Amino acid sequence: MTDTHLVPLREIAHARSGEKGNSSMISVIAYDPAEYGLIAEQVTVDAVKRIFAPITKGGITRFEVPAIGALNFVLDEVLEGGRSRTLAFEESGKALSSLMLTLPVRVPVGRTRPQSGPAPATRPPIQGRTIRLGSATAWSRDRFEPASDLIDRGRIDYLCFETMSEVTMAAAQTARMENPATPLYDPYLVPRMEPILRRCKDQGIRIITNQGWLDPVGAAQRLAALAEELGIERLRIAAVDGGILTDRITGLGAAFLETGAAVGAQRDAIVSAEAYMGAAGIAEALAKGADVVVTTRVADACLYLGPMMHEFGWSIDDYRRMARGMIIGHLMECGAQVCGGYFADPGYKDVPGLSDLGNPIAEVSEDRVILSKLPGSGGLLTPATCKEQLLYEVGDPASYLCPDCVADLTKVRFEQAGPDEVEVLIEAEAGRPRPPTLKVLVGLREGFMTEEMVIFAGPGALARAQATQALLEDRFRKVALQADELRFDYLGINAVHREASPPPAADPYEVILRVALKTSSRAEADKLRREIDPLAVNGLAATGKWATSAPGSRVRPVVGLSSCLVPRDQVPTQVTMIQARSKVSA
């Protein structure tokens, strides 16, 4: 019998986590596919429950993806209401993968971590007609430089900007509630487009962007005005709309997926409702000659599927090709992540040049696709980076629900095609017909949220922080604080993994006590700061203050997100063409 010993999961596998609503998705991927059996046998639901039980209020489901040596876990009710509602310090669940990697697993004594092998021989180039799609951004506040680099050196046909997350619309509505003059499209629309608009027009590069958010027509009109200001002639801009259901959602008979309650019962609380639209509107806009396509919320991968449909003449009913395009788009949608961003773990997954990451390019033909990045850019593109991205924020990999198909991600493999080049191998059976419904995110007014922090250092820092929590709890009773939720965290001890954090091995030198509060009214939320500020003279010795001296309040309205399904015929796609006027001679 082979001798074995226990090691952390981190020694044999890497992991990535993300979120959808109140659930976290955590993928576990063997470094060496030959060791998939080790993780499949030992990283069970029961094993995961042992470390995540203190913070997971719902079930844990495991899915197997043997083709890439991976497992995928869905942890329900782990995010304390979801990113738009949670009081947790780490709101997104993206740090939960590091907790997963602490799970002990048994491996043979003397086993060594696999090393990278020799660089593979370059695979034959793609033959026949191809298009090149460049990923400029993964979210609204992503870096600006990759767009320009892709234009200059990428030989691309399309430049795609993904600028949303689940909470984007809720954040936009929250900003509008605070300042009614706030535009309902991406505030970075003009700063991103101004430096590149003329260059793309001159080079024939077409732009696809979902920066239209809640007002794609308004965004398209702003771009037309920008083109006129820049003297760009005959720029054709398309706005793809139709998914904003705010005024109609209560009449569609939908129920919230999370609770089963009727959406119509929340009529007075609803501030937004947006469907995840498919790629048909983008393909239609391109067929009408659009140089720039600005959309509302579409499924992220559709920004890439739309150009493929247009260029190759794919039918929306051809679910095999729709799945192929969605899988390619899913790999591309998070930008630099597939090129080593959000991947590095020093000593385990080393990534060169993180300060100058390249963004991916997909070279696509009817039957092949190769992902690459710009020569000389930082990062790396390998099967391992692609595997993490393939499973990122996915529930059941065999049934990845998309607006235009159901994609089976278990039928995808990756092969290194050359330095920083990966060929994506997608089986023909990777698609099934699209579902009859579309997912809709509904934003609900849910009161107000605020947080404050106080700082301790030196001997007895933790004891003074704990005494301050007791003091504040007593003060909250005295002022009759009406809290819907109240949370205390100790940064450096338990703020990230919350109640699942192991106890500290020694007294910490520094501790930050964080207090977060959710209430039904702004007046109740204001009570938190009014109890924190007096600690400067009424608190414990050497109580430091978080930088809160600026005027104003951190109290903000909460727009919570829930989801429902509506028949797709209730979401008709609308394409509005807008053309900038020709340049006027001086």
Describe what you observe in this structure:
The chain has 586 residues and is α+β, with helices and mostly antiparallel strands. It is 24% helix and 27% strand. Helix 9 (280-287) packs across helix 10 and helix 10 packs across helix 11. The chain is globular and about 70 Å long.
Q: Main attributes?
A:
six-stranded antiparallel sheet, alpha+beta, 15 helices, 586 residues, 25 strands
Helix content: 10-25%
List low-pLDDT spans: none
Mean pLDDT: 94
Inertia-based shape: globular
Q: TL;DR?
A:
The chain is an alpha+beta fold and 586 residues long.
Task: Show the helix and strand layout.
Blueprint: E1 4-8, E2 13-20, E3 23-30, H1 36-42, H2 45-52, E4 60-65, E5 70-75, H3 96-100, E6 104-108, E7 131-137, H4 145-153, E8 158-161, H5 168-178, H6 189-193, H7 197-203, E9 206-209, H8 216-230, E10 236-241, E11 270-275, H9 280-287, E12 292-295, H10 302-312, H11 319-332, E13 360-364, E14 369-373, H12 383-390, E15 400-402, E16 405-407, E17 412-418, E18 421-426, E19 431-432, E20 437-457, H13 461-478, E21 485-491, E22 510-519, H14 522-532, H15 535-538, E23 544-545, E24 556-567, E25 574-579
Parallel strand pairs: 7-8, 8-9, 9-12, 10-12
Antiparallel strand pairs: 1-6, 2-3, 3-5, 4-5, 7-13, 10-25, 11-20, 13-14, 14-18, 15-16, 16-19, 17-18, 20-22, 20-23, 20-24, 21-22
Helix pairs in contact: 9-10, 10-11
